[in-house]
Amino acid sequence: MYVFFYLFLFKVLLLKYFVKTLNGIMGKRNPVEELFFKFNNDSNKSKCLIEGCPSYLTGRHASNLERHLQKIHPDDFNKLLLKKQGSEQNKKQKVRISPIFYMNIRQ
Description:
Blueprint: H1 2-26, H2 32-36, E1 37-40, E2 45-48, E3 56-58, H3 62-72, H4 74-91, H5 99-103
Antiparallel strand pairs: 1-2, 2-3
Helix pairs in contact: 3-4
Keywords: Signal
Protein name: BED-type domain-containing protein
């Protein structure tokens, strides 16, 4: 009886470890770069792709790119916020694992 409990506990802890590891590796993707900027590895600069904007920003950090949009292109910044809200709502779905998954230890 105790053996099955410990196997069950081991599976739960292993599953939690892999979920944490994958979250740490993958990270969250911010759509600001792919929608509004083009990054050049050689010069380490991000070019603003909005028509009429001559700006080049150093690096590709999402917060700097968002700040540029917020100050210079507020309409496009609002579009970005809507896009981010939509993607966050999709990611907030909970994954439920059936208890039957854990009961299959005996097989």
